[in-house]
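A common beginner's mistake is to predict each chain separately and then try to dock the pieces by hand. The better habit, illustrated here, is to supply every component at once so that their relative placement is modeled jointly.
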Amino acid sequence: MHHKKNYKSMLIYIPVILILGFGIGPFLAALVTSFLPVGTFVTVENPFESISNFSMVNYSELFTEYHFPTWFINSTIVSVVSTLISIFCSCLAGYSLSRFKVAGRRSAEMMLLISQMMPVAAIIIPLYVIISRFALTNTLISLILVNNAITIPFSTMMMRSFFDSIPRELEDAALTDGCTPLMVLRYITLPLVRPGLFATAIFAFTLCWQEFLFAVTFNTSDTLRTLTTGMASVKERNMVNWGILSAAVVVATIPVAILFALVQKQFVHGLTKGALKG
Amino acid sequence: MLMKNNWRGYLRKNKMAYLFLLPALLCLIGTVFIPICMAVKTSFFRDVFLSPLSQPFVGWDNYLSIFRDNLFWDSFWRSWYWTIGSVVLQFLVGFVAALVLNQQFVGRGIIRGLLIIPWVVPGTVTASIFSMLFTSTGLVNQLLIKMGLLDNFFPWLTNFGTAMPTLLLAHTWRGFPFYMIMMLAALQGIPDELYESAKIDGASALSCFLHITLPNIKGSIMVSTLLGVIWTYGYLDMIYIMTYGGPYYATYTQALYVYAKAFVKGDLGMASAGAVTLVLTMLLFSLLYLRSIRKSDIE
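With all components supplied together, the output reads:
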């Protein structure tokens, strides 16, 4: 009996390995390709060639022949500043939606939901008109501003769910002790919601890090590209250098993968409890 | 006296409530709602990039021109091919992954973490990886030739028939973790007692799945797939990078139609009309989505 159970519990690893292979196999292919010497491919004959021929040449070429470091810094600046703005807005709005049941709350939620569902392809045309009227094309500010359209709806819903999970009694007690609502938020609620705030910030950061369409439309100058549009420009060259592209893929993936690993649990909570509820 | 104080306190609280909402809503008004209004307005005017001085009011002309454009209808239906194909495949893979991750085994947490990665990387990354895998001399062709399934390198992304399926596969890879997370949460929300009492009654694994699992996660399936439809329909990043609508419009979706009308053809009037139809389609689905979250809330 015991033996049979053991055998059965091993069986689960067959689908686990299949799904894991599908999930990370493509990324592993890029990882291996990025460490191959120039002009070599991963081949079926020798998939582990890169281990014996390990080479950083793709990375060094990516960092010296292209504006890659600039793109990386641009992406970082845009994502960090956008995240700070959207966290400020969504923290306040999420708190308001969670705590105060005032008239007009439903309309505010409706606005958030509608924004969350607007396809970027639709709003990008008037946004481009606005951006060029203010002479903000080929700037990072334009991206920082428009990213809010993507980040705020989600972050607000997530923050709201995190505030919902904190009991009100604590705040009420502080209020009767004579704290102002702002002090309560600052000294009682915010410290309690910090893990959720962190998860929301990382999610907002990831959305900005992924953003492509705004960046490719508003900024055409090579030094103002972000990682995503820079990567696309590497791919659009006449002869695609897959090794260099793979190196770019790896460098673009690592920051978000690490950040996500840090907040996995809160993130799942925020996504399932918050982002999907009206 | 007490009444008056309460009322005042309520007012002060209210003021805070609105003040707190203000920054977020202002940002959204500036980046979403004013642009939508502008698109609606532009859709009734002739507005072409190269002749900015004459912008006459043309009524419904822009709408009529896009509705008479075969390419618009082609791209409209192709958007549904793209959307339904993506959502169904992403959901199936994600659901299977969730069922597997719902079992007890060593390393489950790490594997769940690794499986979320495809969803957090930029679409550009996915597009680059899959362009590399499916290029003529790429790994997929090499494997298929090695296995004797192909004789020659096959141009997956530049062949009319296979470009869209290849894009769908890439998008499945990118999108399945979302459904995995959602379904896993739904599965873990089902009380164990239900399964235990069914076991006592002698129910088979299949009938447990059909009569306990599925009914209990129906709401979550509805909500997440509708959201998936809304996100996928206008999603352009991967198509833009992998095929840009080609070959011969094989992957030309409505979002790309609208985008290219504006930024390639420079016809802002027609593009705005297309954008408005895109927004209206999404609003329709948003209403369905809202109804289904209300319903699953009541349940």
